[in-house]
Design a protein that fits this description.
This protein is α/β, with parallel strands linked by helices. It is built from 5 helices and 5 strands.
């Protein structure tokens, strides 16, 4: 993990919520300022209970719909990044257990210097100050985390 002056990789986690897209805007600005590579990550939370009851076709439709939505977000973010000359890598991953765990794992695999995340997401369940995903990323990440509110 590098210091801020040599921040070369920034991971931003998005879920399509207003705050996650705002976090992506901040990430683009940071990437421009520090000449960093920007990794945009969307985690599709596949609920284990849903897997037990969903048919294979319903499951495939859910994944396809989720990936299509994320591609739209990636395209919009990519357009903004390109205008500022920021290199991006966008990816969607599927996770059964822990969305925060998937975000942190991806940051580790990429050797990111920082994680940027929106304070609350699309889940609809909001804690007093931060959403549960943001709270757990802050709590368990060994990387610095910028939470956008």
């Amino acid at each position: 993990m590098n210091n801020v002056a040599s921040m070369s990789k920034i991971l931003v986690a998005i879920d399509g919520s207003e705050l996650s897209l705002k976090a992506a805007d901040y990430a683009i600005e940071f990437a421009k300022k520090y000449n960093s590579k920007l990794i945009i990550l969307h985690v599709i939370h596949v609920h284990a209970a849903g897997l037990a009851y969903a048919t294979e076709s319903i499951f495939k439709q859910f994944i396809e719909k989720s990936k299509k939505e994320s591609e739209e977000w990636f395209n919009a973010i990519g357009k903004k990044a390109k205008e500022l000359g920021v290199e991006i890598k966008a990816e969607t991953v599927e996770e059964i257990y822990s969305v925060p765990g998937a975000i942190i794992k991806r940051a580790e695999e990429e050797d990111a210097d920082v994680i940027i995340i929106g304070g609350t997401g699309k889940s609809g369940f909001k804690q007093f100050l931060l959403g549960s995903v943001a709270t757990d990323v802050v709590r368990y990440s060994k990387y610095p985390v910028f939470v956008i509110k």
